[in-house]
Specification:
The protein is of the alpha/beta class and 374 residues long.
Length: 374
């Protein structure tokens, strides 16, 4: 049995996100771990499942469903998934996937090179659906693949918005691709597969469970350099994806919503706690994911007069020299504020076009900004 076949067999008998198994495969290879399971003594449940598995039937079913099984090292294997190896666990789950069942005409490696993950509430509002669809369509037109989980609500709106643009979408499911869940989205999944890709760690015939959804979330976060949250109540599965994105040092973004809406609770909490950056459109997302981050100031029409600044904002603004740039620490000392407080205010001033950040991370005035006296 070669490595691909061994990884397929292991993925069929062991739950996704099993950190001990991932470590064992890294140390002994998939073929060695599979052989060890087949030869294990006693009533170990996983060994029993391994002995009952028929590798030939699994491979035949994969082929019959027109699926391909990808493993690390394949040309279209997403390199960002390697960040899951050895990373901090969430809910006891971790580890790079052993392999992925894939359907669709898209090039997985190319799609994930500049992808944006978008997640949110299943019980979304009309506001959330509209924002997610518009944002995804704009990102798609900008050449960014939108990754989501195919669920009702924000996931579906994100996929549909992406499909309306010029770039294919990517969907990651928590069950076998022969019976994609939810069944009501079969037509949507077919549309995604026409130009994009549908993925799963689970073999054909497997159904989603709570733990499998949690394991799936780590893939959504890992596949993209940034994750956008659009609507999520206080207790939301989308929050788990954001946790994974933070663990993986991805850029986390959140769209604000009406303060009266229960689905605004988690995005607002993340923004307030500096766990996510506020975004209101594709331009914000693209700027945050660009190599130089916030190096580009806003358009002139978005600038506000300095007399509208709060006292602390004005202190920070007036601490930036008229020529040249200044590091964050020096600026905070001049303004008499803490570094975290200064950074929060600097973000607001950059967002409003009053300041710009240099490629070296220092702060300066945009050329068109002129100070006002007093």
């Amino acid at each position: 049995m070669d490595e691909r076949a061994a990884r397929m067999c292991l993925a069929a008998v062991i739950e996704p996100g099993h950190p001990v198994l991932a470590d064992a495969v890294a140390d002994f290879g998939a073929e060695g771990v599979w052989a060890g399971l087949l030869g294990a003594d006693g009533d170990l449940p996983i060994a029993e499942r391994a002995r009952r598995l028929r590798p030939g039937e699994l491979a035949a079913r994969t082929k019959a469903e027109r699926l391909r099984f990808l493993i690390p090292g394949d040309p279209d294997w997403p390199i960002r998934l390697a960040d899951l190896a050895g990373c901090e666990s969430v809910n006891g789950l971790s580890g790079e996937p052993l392999g992925l069942w894939a359907a669709g005409a898209g090039d997985l490696g190319a799609l994930t090179a500049g992808a944006v993950a978008m997640v949110g509430s299943r019980a979304s509002t009309a506001y959330g659906d509209s924002v997610a669809a518009d944002l995804a369509a704009e990102l798609s037109d900008a050449g960014r693949c939108v990754v989501s989980g195919g669920a009702y609500g924000i996931d579906a709106a994100a996929h549909r918005g992406c499909l309306a643009g010029r770039t294919p979408s990517l969907c990651v499911l928590a069950g076998g691709l022969d019976q994609p869940y939810p069944a009501g989205h079969r037509a949507l999944f077919d549309r995604i597969a026409e130009r994009g890709v549908i993925l799963s760690e689970l073999p054909p015939g497997e159904h989603p469970t709570r733990v499998r959804f949690l394991a799936r979330n780590r893939l959504i976060a890992a596949l993209a350099p940034g994750t956008v949250l659009v609507e999520a109540a206080a207790r939301s599965g989308a929050r788990n994806t954001v946790t994974w994105a933070n663990v993986l040092s991805r850029v986390v973004m959140a769209v604000p919503g009406p303060v009266t809406s229960a689905t605004s609770v988690t995005p607002h909490r993340l923004i307030r706690g500096a766990e996510a950056v506020l975004v209101t459109g594709a331009a914000d997302v693209l700027e945050l994911l660009s190599p130089l981050g916030r190096a580009s100031p806003r358009a002139p029409g978005e600038h506000r007069a300095t007399d509208e600044l709060t006292p602390d904002e004005l202190r920070v603004f007036e601490s930036v020299p008229g020529r040249g740039s200044i590091p964050t620490g020096d600026l905070a000392a001049r303004a008499g504020l803490t570094v975290p407080r200064s950074l929060a205010l600097l973000d607001q001033l950059v967002e409003r076009g009053f300041l710009a950040q240099t490629p070296l991370g220092e702060w300066q005035l945009p050329p068109r900004i002129a100070r006002r006296g007093g």
